[in-house]
Amino acid sequence: MTPEAEMAPHDAAITDSARCPCGSGDLFGGCCGPILRAETTAPTAERLMRSRYTAFVIGDVAHLRATWHASTRPASIEIEPDLRWRRLVVLDREAGGPFDRAGVVEFAAHWLQDGARGVLHERSRFVREERRWLYVDGDLL
């Protein structure tokens, strides 16, 4: 099993010692946890995308809102309570490093809902403003 195939339980009470849902292979406390708690910022577009995936997994709407660019942020963000995000696979990345101004991350996010399985495949665009990465938008593939 690859690190991206491993995941933590889909539980809002995830502990720092649990495997991070983003599939990095790291523990939540050393991966997305500090970013979701706003103790640090994501150094790259990919790390922000991974933290946003984790926020969807655990239902952290505040993180999603805080990391969504104001020009495209919806008025409200709804989390479907019966939708379970099961696995994240990063497929490609363009730029998005610590010194870039923009980046693109392509990913496949696998989900389960009411016994049905599916995949959200997206190429997401990110910008870095004032040393913070923000999600702008994405194209579904």
TrEMBL record:
The lineage of its organism: Bacteria, Bacillati, Actinomycetota, Actinomycetes, Micrococcales. This is YchJ-like middle NTF2-like domain-containing protein. Residues 44-138 form the YchJ-like middle NTF2-like domain. It comes from Microbacterium galbinum. It holds the Pfam family YchJ_M-like. Gene3D superfamilies: 3.10.450.50. Coiled coil: none annotated.
